[in-house]
Here is the input.
Amino acid sequence: MDNDALHLFEETLARYNRERYDAVQWSDYGRLPQGHAPERWAELQAMGCFELLQPEDDARPAPLADLLPLYAAAGEALWREPLATVFAEPVAVINQLADLDQRRTLLDGLISGERPLGYAHRETADGAADAIATTATASTAASGTGWRLSGDKAMVIGADVCAGFLVSAIDAARGAPAMFLVDAAAPGLQLQRYRCIDDGIAADLRFDQVPAQRLCDGAAAVAAANARGTILAAAEALGIMRGANRDSTEYLRERRQFGQSLLGFQALQHRLVEMLMRQRECEALVAAVAEAFDHASPTLPRQVLVLRVAVARALRHITREAVQLHGGMGVTQALRIGRYYRRALMLDSLHGTADQALEALSEHS
Amino acid sequence: MAATLHAATPAQEAERAAVQRAAAAAGFDAARFRAELRAFCRDQVPADIGTRMRQHQYFTREQRIRWQQLLQTRGWFVGHWPKAHGGQGWGPLQRFIFVEELERAGTPWLTHFGTSFLGPVLCAFGNDAQRARFLGPIRDSTEWWCQGFSEPGSGSDLASLKLRAERSGSHYRVNGQKTWTTMAQWADWIFCLVRTEAGGKPQQGISFLLINLKSPGVTVRPIDTFDGGRHVNEVFFDDVEVPVEHLVGQEGDGWTIAKFIVGRERLLVTEIGKAWHLLGVLHSLASTRREGARKFSDTAAFRRRAAELEVQYDSLRATAYAAVLEAEAGREHPVDASLLKIRGSELQQAIHDAITDLLARDGLAFQIEGLHDDIDGYRHGDARLPGLLHEHLHCRAASIYGGSNEIQRGIIAKTALHV
Ligand SMILES: Cc1cc2nc3c(=O)[nH]c(=O)nc-3n(C[C@H](O)[C@H](O)[C@H](O)COP(=O)(O)OP(=O)(O)OC[C@H]3O[C@@H](n4cnc5c(N)ncnc54)[C@H](O)[C@@H]3O)c2cc1C
Here is the structure.
C-alpha cells in the first residue's frame, strides 16, 4: 500500500469504529450467541478487507505490513470478530504448502469469506503457546482410508465461524509433527465453548479418530504461523496502546480535583509520558519486524521474540497505568479502559507472556 | 522464610523476640494466640465456606455473616474494641496478628465498615445512646454497614464533597449522591460524610451522619466492574429524613472522624497475611504444572520470580510489624501508614501478575458462573481459574481505593519532606 492508500484505509477504519463500535454496540455484540455480530464480520468482508490477502503472484504473498492498520483498528475498538481465522495463522500455514493449487484453493476460501480456518495447535498440558510439542497423533488406517487424527486442542479462536481447522499433530509414520486439515463437520470432532478473560469465546477441541488431510511438515509451519500471529497481535496491541493513552490523557484533562485539571499535576504528566514513549517504541518495532517477516529475514525468529517481550511488557504497563489513572472509573465496565486491560491479559495468554518470550530469547541461538 | 513459603501449611517461623516482648507487655502470648487462631481456622470453618475458600469463589452475604458470628463466639470479631464497650481491649499488635492469621488461612474478608471503622468511631466520638443503639448489632453482625465517603466529583479531593444535610427541626434532610459504595447492596446502614455548612474552609463544614438505607428516598444502584462483580454502588439520597440523634460528634467533626477511619483503613489494607496466602497459591500452581520434563516450579525463571516476590514480601512484613510495634507503643512513624498502603497493594498486584502469567499458559478462560458455584457443564482449566482471575482484576483497585497510591505518596511528601 502506498502512503495515500494507507491514509485512506486508516480513515475508513476510524469511521467504521466510530459508527459501528461504541461501548454500547460492543456490549450488544458480546451478548449474541457467537460472541460477535455476524453482520460486522460480513461488513468487513464487503469493505474489501479480506482482499488484503490477495497475493501479487504465486511467488509473492500479500505483505503482512498491509494488515497492520486493520489490526490496530481492531485493537483500539476491541473488535470481537474472529480475525485470526482469516488473516493470521492460517495464512502462514497455507503459504508453506508446496502444492500451488492447494494453496490457491485454501487462500480463496479465506478471501471469499466462505472457508475461514481455525488454528488448532495449542494444548493445555504443554503450557507454552509456542511449543512444537504436541501429543495429538495422526495415523493412516490399515485399510488405506486416509489419515485419522486423535487428541485434544485448547483455546481455538473463532471455532464457530470455521469451515475447518488446521491441526498440528504427530505424524505417526514419521514420528514428527505435521499439519493436518480437518473439516469442521467431520465425525469424531467435539467442540466445547467458553468465555475468556477478554469476554470473547474460545473452544477446546477433542478429536477421536477424525478423518484428516495431511498438509505439510509441522515445525516450519508452526513457527511461521506463530510468528505471523505474534506480529499481528503486536499490531493489535498498538491500537490498544493508542486508545489507552488517548483516553487517559483526555480523562485527566477533563477530570478536576483540588480545583484544577488533574493533567496539571507533573507527577501524572510523567506517567503519561512514559506510556507514550513505550507506545512509540513499539510502533517502530512492529513496523520493523513486519518488514523482516515480509522479506523472510534470517534473523526473524529472534526479532519476533524481541517484539513479543517488548510489546507484552509495554501493553501490560500501559493498560495497568490507564486503569490506575482513571481512578475508580478505570475498574468499571462503563469505559473501554478495563476492557483493554483484560484484552492485554488475553493476548499474553494467546501469544505467550513477556517472561516466556524472554526465556525463549535467552535460550535461542 | 523461603522454606515456609514453599509449604502449603501455615508458616512455622519463630515469633520475633520484639513481637513476643510487646505481646507479653500487652498481656498475651503471641505464639499461643497464633496457634489458637490457626487451629480455629483449620477446624471451625464451615464446610460450604471451606469449599469456596479453596476455589477462591465469592462468598455470599449469609456466609460472611455466619463466619463473623463464629469468630464472635470467641469474642474475636470485636476483640479490638475497648472492654467497656464489649471488646477485649486488644491493642494494635494483637489485632494485627488476628487479621494476619485469618488472611493466611484464606477465610472470608471481614466486612470492616462496622467492626473496624464505625465501632471504634462510636467508642471514641459517639454518645452513650448511639453506642447502646448501634454497637450490639455490629458485634453480632445483625446490621451491615457501608462507607459513604466518595462522590462522583469528590474522589481524591474528598474535602470537596457535596452531599447536603440541612437541619429542619429534629431531622436532617439529606440530598445528593455517594458513589463507589462497597457492598451497599447488602447493607442496612451507611455512615456518611455530609456537608452541613457551605462556605469557609471545605473541611470545616463536613459532618458524620448515620443513615438507614431503608429510609424513603434512598436508592442503591450497582456499578458493573471489570472483575465481573457487582460489589460497588451508587447511592442516591432524595430528601431523606435523618433524625438529628444520628449525627456523630458535633456538626463539623466529620473531617476529624474521617481521618481517624482512613488511618485504620490503611493499616488493614497492608493485607500481609493475604500476600502470604497468595504466595502459597502461586507455589502450589507452579509445582503442579510442567515445563517439558520438569516441574514448572523447578525452572530457573520461576524460581527467580518467586525469589523477587519473597524479597518484597519479607520487606513488607518487617515494615508492617515495625509500624504495628510503634503503634502498640503509642507512637506513629510519619511514613508508615501510607507506605504500607502503597507497598501492600503493589505486592498483592505483583503476586497476582505472577499467578496470572502462570495460568495464562493454560489459557485464560473466565467462566464467571464459576465465581459463585461449580461450573455446570464444561470447564476449561483449573477450578480456581474464575476466582483467581476475579481477584487479580479486583486487586487493581487496591491502589485506587482508600486514598490512591498517588495520594499516599503526596501525603508522605507533605509529612516527611516538609513541603
Ligand atoms: C473497588 C472500589 C471500592 C471502593 N469502595 C469505597 C467505599 O466503600 N466507600 C467510599 O467512600 N469510597 C470507595 N471507593 C472510592 C475510592 O476511595 C476512590 O475511587 C478514590 O478515592 C479515588 O477517587 P476517584 O476514583 O475519584 O479518582 P480521582 O480522584 O479522579 O483520581 C484519578 C487519578 O488521578 C490521581 N490523582 C488525583 N489527585 C492527584 C494528585 N493531587 N496528585 C497526583 N495524582 C493525583 C489519582 O491517584 C488517580 O490515579 C472505592 C473505589 C473502588 C475502586
